[in-house]
Write a structure and sequence with these properties.
Length: 593
């Protein structure tokens, strides 16, 4: 949830730390801070709100000619967003930045208070600093840090500066942290985008390891011994995150969808790669994910059941991890995650692995915990997503599921009509046409932006699309929107429909079209204003405001529909002057339970 960066080397740390924080701001943006050191003195500056506030404050207040430092951007968990809760936290000789949650912080704090420690903040992170300080009174640094890792229950990525030890220590468990390797300069970061301007070489720090970065060296210790780890190289697609001429990252990332989709479809055009998407060995599938990734799963469920004849269940990871799991033989568990670091999805995956079931991850971040621990990983390779609301990664999650359903249906000889792989190859071109035709979305946004609530309705796979479209609208525009199965509305929620309530109805499934039309008539009879989103072959809605997308094959219709509704959400949020790339209360990567 929070972002961490550290730097030691020949350059001024302030600029590097601030630049890194800007690139990590998507991970949390309610407060930030830095601690810099000149080998003798330490200076801590914190600020509420965006990183730009911190930058201004540093310009005014920083006096130290520092040579290394650590910095943090926060998404509040323990304690409100305030100066006292912002990181870094210094207790005694120890200054830390922390991402994660320490579950036993209250007990640790009680013991530390008994030992005479006092606390200024409400955070669990300050407890970590105090605990390490207390260990350092009796133990050597490495032994003390090792003891710290044994004492903490929960998740953490921690950057540590200790008075009189020139350098930065780092540890992690279940929260991401990498070491960047430059030329006589070293970095610590929550992800590579924070440091890519300076180096593309990095090492993944693992649980149980302690890193120590100094001016001319870095060391990684495991069980008190120095170990050597592979140095990885980041390629362009993982790291390019400039906004270019776009007003927002969200718009830029939607506009990138045709390119990343084309790459994905090309990758699976060869039969060896296609085999990786063949699920015909499995009788049942559980899809486990959170938020949009789960909604992608609902599209997968419809396609797997309709075309590949595999019973499929979809669960939010936060529920799945605690439920009694009932499996049939040959059940596959598919985990879907853009970041690969979502705490609930990781916990669900580990639980499933403990039970001995096969796991397959559809994941965007190739270095993430989920990518590293799942039995099989399918990378979406959408590139970096900076906007907090996912767009292009979601499109590729759905595309992978659609290809899986198609390839499995072909292997099982289940397709009733001939659909060639060529049909998939045409989709990126159609997608480009659809998203470039943005005037129609702007016009519909004009209709919608003054409303405070609306509904998305559809049946079957169209309902699965409604869930994502509705989430997108509410998270970026703050309009309260609900997705409903079209036939279910009349069982209660229709009481909310009044004159001019906006209903967006998705109709792409021919066999359910007439049923949804009856539901549209029901709400129109009660004064609702219905906007139709449909495919060209089904369009007969002359008297409605509508979005009509080209008809593709049945597996990929949702791609075009969702892209249009992502744009609609974007333009509504723009009209409402919302902070589109960083909606209130959200963070991109949810690494807490
Ligand atoms: C919504 C959104 C979230 C994420 C969810 C899972 O736009 O981005 O709902 O989809 O937090 O995140 P990942 O995919 O990183 O596991």
């Amino acid at each position: 949830m929070c972002g961490i960066i550290g730097y030691i080397g020949k350059n001024n740390p302030n600029d590097i730390l601030i630049n890194g924080l800007y690139n990590l701001e998507y991970r949390g943006y309610d407060s930030s801070g830095i601690a810099i050191c000149d080998n003798k003195n330490i200076e801590i500056i914190k600020s509420i709100g965006r990183v730009s506030n911190l930058e201004e404050k540093i310009k005014k207040e920083s006096r130290l000619n520092a040579s290394y430092g650590i910095a943090h951007t926060r998404w509040a968990t323990n304690g409100e967003a305030s100066l006292k809760n912002a990181h870094p936290h210094k207790v005694g000789r120890v200054t830390i930045v922390h991402n994660g949650i320490i579950e036993n912080a209250d007990i640790l704090k009680e013991n530390l208070i008994k030992k005479g420690y006092t606390f200024n903040s409400e955070t669990d992170s300050e407890v970590v600093a105090a605990l390490l300080d207390s260990y350092l009174k009796e133990l050597d640094v490495l032994v003390a840090i090792n003891k710290l890792t044994k004492s903490l229950v929960g998740s953490y990525a921690i950057g540590i500066i200790i008075d009189n030890y020139n350098g930065i220590y780092a540890i992690r468990k279940d929260s991401p942290l990498i070491l960047g390797i430059g030329l006589n300069e070293y970095f610590l970061a929550s992800d590579i985008t924070a440091i890519i301007k300076y180096t593309n070489k990095y090492i993944l720090l693992d649980e149980g390891e302690i890193a120590f970065l100094t001016y001319n060296d870095y060391k990684i210790y495991k069980n008190k011994k120095i170990i050597t780890k592979e140095i990885l190289i980041a390629d362009n697609i993982d790291t390019v995150n400039e906004k270019k001429d776009y007003s927002h990252y969200m718009l830029k990332e939607i506009m990138e969808e045709p390119i990343v989709l084309q790459k994905l479809i090309k990758k699976y055009s060869n039969s060896i790669n296609q085999e990786k998407l063949n699920l015909s060995d499995y009788k049942e599938i559980d899809i486990v994910a959170c938020g949009s990734a789960m909604y992608a799963g609902f599209i997968g469920q419809n396609l797997f059941e309709e075309y590949a004849n595999i019973k499929t269940n979809v669960y939010p990871a936060s529920e799945y991890r605690y439920k009694n799991k009932i499996y049939n033989d040959n059940t596959l568990v598919i985990l879907i995650s853009q970041s690969g670091e979502t705490a609930d999805t990781i916990a669900a995956m580990r639980e499933v692995k403990r039970l001995g079931l096969p796991t397959l991850a559809i994941v965007n971040n190739k270095d993430s915990t989920i990518a590293r621990e799942a039995d099989i990983k399918i990378l979406t390779e959408a590139g970096v997503e900076v906007a907090v609301a996912t767009t292009k990664a979601y499109i590729l999650q759905v595309s992978v599921l659609a290809l899986m359903a198609y390839i499995t249906a072909c292997k099982k000889n289940l397709l009733k009509e001939s659909i060639n792989y060529n049909d998939f190859e045409k989709v990126p071109i159609l997608l480009k046409e659809v998203i470039e035709n943005n005037n129609q979305y702007k016009n519909i946004a004009e209709e919608l932006y003054k409303d405070e609530r609306c509904f998305y309705i559809g049946r079957g796979i169209d309902y699965a699309m409604c869930m994502e479209a509705s989430l997108k609208l509410k998270e970026v525009s703050y309009i309260h929107s609900e997705a409903y199965q079209a036939g279910e509305l009349k069982h209660g929620s229709i009481s909310l429909i009044e004159k001019n309530t906006k209903i967006i109805s998705i109709i792409t499934d021919k066999k359910l079209k007439e049923k949804t039309i009856s539901n549209i008539k029901e709400v129109e009879a009660r004064g609702a204003k219905v906007i139709i989103v449909t495919t060209k072959d089904l369009d007969e809605f002359e008297d409605h405001l509508k979005i009509v997308v080209p008809t593709t094959n049945k597996f990929m219709n949702s791609i075009l529909v969702i892209a249009t509704l992502q744009l609609l959400a974007y333009y509504v949020a723009l009209k409402r002057n919302c902070d589109i790339d960083k909606p209130r209360n959200l963070a991109k990567s949810v690494t807490v339970e």
